[in-house]
Amino acid sequence: MGLFALRRYVPYLRPYVGLVVVFGLSQLGSLVTAASIPKVIQFIIDGPITEHNLGRLVPMAGLLVVIGALEFVLIVMRRHYSGVASLRMETDLRNDFYAHLQNLQVSFHDNWQSGQLLSRAISDIGTVRRFVSFGLIWFLQTIVTFVVVFALMLQLDWQLALVVVLCMVPIAFFSNVFHNKYRVIARSLQDLTGDMTTTIEEMATGVRIIKAFGRMPLMQKRFEDEASQIRVTSLTGIKARAELWTELNFLPNLSLVAVLLLGGVNVVAGRMTIGGLVAFMNYVFMLIWPMDAIGWVLSMSEECQTASQRLNEVLDSRPEISDRHGARALERCRGRLEFRGVGFRYPKSDEWVLRDLNLVVEPGETVGLVGRTGSGKTSLAYLGPRLYDVSEGSVLLDGVDVRDITLRSLRSHIGFAFEDPILFSASVHENLVMGRPIVSDQELKRAIDVAHAGFVWDLPWGLETRVGEQGYTLSGGQRQRLALARAVLGAPPLLILDDPLSSVDVHTEATIEEALARVLEGVTGLLVVHRPSTLALADRVALIEGGTVAAVGTHGELMRSNDLYRALLSQEYDPRAEEALA
Amino acid sequence: MSAAARADEWRGVAAGEVDDFSPSVAGLLRRRSRVLLARLARPYLGSMALAAVLILVRSAGYLALPYLIGLGIDQGIRPGRSGNPQTLVLIVGVLAIALLVNALANYAFMRVSGRIGANILFNLRRTLFAHVQELSLSFFERYTSGRIISRLTSDIDALNELLATGLTSVITSLISVVAITAILIHLDVRLGMVALVAMPLVVGLTYWFRVNSARSYRAVRRAIVLVIVHYVESLGGIRAVHAFRREPRNQEIFEDVNARYRDANIWSNRLASTFGPAINLLGRLTTAAVLLYGGYLVVQGQLTLGVLTAFVLYLRQFFDPMQELSQFYNVFQAAGAALEKLAGVIEEAPTVPEPSSPISMHEAKGAVAFDHVTFAYREKPVLHDIDFSVPAGAVVALVGETGAGKTTMARLIARFYDPTAGRVTLDGVDLRSITVQDLRRAVVVVTQESFLFSGTVGENILFGRPSATRGEMEQAARAIGAHDFIMAMPNGYDTDVRRRGVRLSSGQRQLVAFARAFLADPRVLILDEATSSLDLPSERLVQRALRTLLRGRTAFIIAHRLSTVEVADRVLVLDAGRIVEDGAPAELRRDDGRYSSLHRAWVESLA
Ligand SMILES: Nc1ncnc2c1ncn2[C@@H]1O[C@H](COP(=O)(O)OP(=O)(O)O)[C@@H](O)[C@H]1O
Ligand SMILES: Nc1ncnc2c1ncn2[C@@H]1O[C@H](COP(=O)(O)OP(=O)(O)O)[C@@H](O)[C@H]1O
Ligand SMILES: [Mg+2]
Ligand SMILES: [Mg+2]
Fold this sequence. Notes:
The structure holds 2 protein chains of 2 kinds. Chain A is of the alpha/beta class. Chain A has helices at 10-13, 17-49, 54-103, 106-111, 114-156, 158-168, 170-205, 207-213, 216-268, 274-286, 288-315, 377-383, 407-412, 428-433, 441-450, 476-488, 506-520, 532-535, 555-561, 563-569, 575-581; strands at 337-344, 354-361, 366-371, 392-397, 400-401, 414-417, 494-498, 524-528, 540-545, 548-553. Chain B is elongated and about 120 Å long. In chain B, strand 9 (570-575) and strand 10 form a beta hairpin. Bound molecules: adenosine-5'-diphosphate (ADP) (2 copies) and magnesium ion (2 copies).
């Protein structure tokens, strides 16, 4: 069966073997006590009471109380430990799932809907846990009950036992039908839930746009369509379950009828005692609960199997960007960055964004990247810290292919400022430091000064103030300056700044540029810019066009010699330059 | 608690911490969640009655079983005498029919109750989603998307469990408990009293459980929110996480919140796994007491052995459903905690409410005025006494340092917030008197963040006006120069932009956002740094387009590149939340004020 999909979760129970053993023992114990209580009662009634011996009645009742108390303790242990073991397993699994996702490359996240990832982490892992904590136990308990009851039946009257077995045979058929039907339903229900979660997420994060256009009804419709699909699908699931459970309930009852009829005839014919018949029917009664449980177990196991399939889809995707064999840490970094014959395509796309690109940034040098919108500047910048990997050629840091440097080490040498600031709803301090090894207050202050982000001191709780989600409680320029401060923090030898000043006003820009010039003095810089003033920071400029470096030179040289460059940077409309763009 | 507080330090301090209730409001919480539950159930009272009838039939079929078997033995098999096969067959036939009825009623019951549950969930989802969308931006800022997601997903799931399993067991169990109590009393009043002595204990135990488990399940709900919030946010910013090697830190935080979730679950599990067995234990104790007292009575000759035996057997049937009820109660408590949270969201009123008596505005002209407007996000005012008016069709530029309050003004014009004092008007009508629908048709803002939804480029542009034709959509894209790059993509307008538009470069995203706004064709258009990521020629193209596109519209343009500002008829210079200069661009350039200094600096920056 598809239960094989569950194999990979077995190791998660291993640390809790002790708990599982305790749980198993207390389970056994509680079964024994539960079974012994009717015996004791029978003893009391047949013994002291029938014999009118009140003296012995009291200790016997005391025994009953003691066994009851023992049973209580055992059941509490059983439930508690099975809960603890399965919850711990769930937590470990979720931690690992999260760790795995964090290690997967950026392009993986680009291609997955966030809601699908969330519903896997929360509800699918929960489904696996529930099956492990209840489903498996019931499954085992049911099997044990069946075996014991059948043994007892066989011993009593093998012919009638055969009749009961015959009545039960359709179970195999029904559960197979159910398996085929419910597997599809469970899977599509889980997928639909993921889609709905995505819609919810987009509503919550895109609320500014939704409100700006008054498109609440549109989103509502999209959501309701998904929710009603979930409703319809869960109704088909309910129907399938109702059918199965009814069948499972009906079969033992049916065998009861058969037993009464055939057994009755036997008794009348004198081939069986009436006591034997009653006892036999009692056994059949004992099968009713386990049959109910089978229904539960079957639907739970289907859900669990599809949920673990969904988890496996994520867990099976190996990180494509990771330390390759023999990668080493780069202890000291001089900051020489070289792009050698670089070609780049985004994963799952077959257009070349960059092709045959060669560029060297010498240590201490600052190179500006200029190009039109969509020419691949940001993509080029991403290649430095290996947010994506080249498709052809190589990127070298200090002459070493970046793929031969451990990720931790590589990224620790690079300060990166993204076009979108990317802030988290955490304190300003956390957003700046990002959990990097202890940073001194002086460094922090310096970085804030460079980015001209002194406004943070005026926030209600200073650096401890929480910035809203995505930094939305700050103005656009403030967000961008925080992101810049984050990049220069810790004085990395290589700075990659992707259009870091697009949202600041001219005065602030001038101030920041002055400070940046000082910072860039000793370090290597790769600077994506649109404004001539910022280009003053660059020693050389590379013009990106057609996926490659079309020209390199100083700003002045390029302004003189290159029409396209002039078109991209001159403020005035210039027909000749404009032609170069066409 | 202090350890937890330390672990939370990274989160920082914010005003108005959400999601924490003092225990004193617990009663209020329960009441409001009960109100919500009643509201949800109301449309289905009829179906619920049907479900109850079905379950009665089912129980009847089931209870007839022992009786019919007994009858079969006594009348059909007739132990001790010669059997009566015909009667036996007859009775077995009746038995088969009873079982069939039982099975059918069972099936029908599951379908009906399942449908009720699915419908209630659907309605709840729908109501909640609609309500959240109505809430104001300040709510979203406070609440964060992760919290909203967890309300709409995991809290609703908690309710699902109640609806899926709860109803069945509670009805059957209640029927059994009541019926058996009656039988017990009927059998023997004295013994019945002894058996019922346990009832106060059951009630006490239940009370203890209710109080504690409500707390534990609240802790569970609180903890899962933290897990979801961290998960969503940290993976949403995965680029920055990788670039700054935040993985270990994230993992630490995640494992911390996840452990809290686990501990809260273990707590509630511990309570539930004590409560159920404790009820069971009470059953055992009662049995012992009944045996003692009953044995005494039998010895005294005041009771027959048969009655005592029956009594003991019934006691078992009494406490078994009690066990089931305790299970149900546990699920109910879990759902209750979730319901409290949901009810909390539903009670949240929009701080920017719809007008109660709206002034209709089908065709706005587009005159905008600020009438002594002061605005504060929290305590500290961001805008001070802003007062100006703009005639319809004027193009106004807002200029000022970052943090001066330009975006805030844009948000007030779009009524994302209401002013703290004063009023903002459109065609002389206070924005607070215009319906959301009319206002959104009239005023559209292109925000600083060009958010795109997952879906195709075309769908994103059509978001501006879903009723537009494909031709109109392409026209809008062409007008601002987005058509060429869109057509260059593999599937043109049908290219999937992926999660938040990552498929596009940020300049391309801005162009799409721009096209989206033009397609909406509003009277008043607000452009908040809408071209900041474009290269200069593309920006020039947009500017040229603006001259024609803005004809007949009122526009507010916020930009740092002053070339864009030159399109404007009028410039408002903002400084620390005050308008310090106001005039035509050429005029202001000549004066020796802020604008002229800004402009000089800008011209220099181009050299
Ligand atoms: N994740 C992605 N998948 C596929 N194509 C992409 C992705 N991101 C960007 N592109 C495409 O790659 C090209 C270069 O984008 P980018 O490097 O962001 O340009 P820019 O020079 O404006 O920074 C654009 O045409 C864009 O559409
Ligand atoms: N949602 C918010 N909550 C609290 N403070 C805010 C919020 N949005 C902006 N602010 C603050 O208000 C001031 C003005 O911001 P804003 O209007 O965005 O400036 P800008 O002129 O750069 O657009 C800033 O100091 C900013 O920190
Ligand atoms: Mg870019
Ligand atoms: Mg702004």
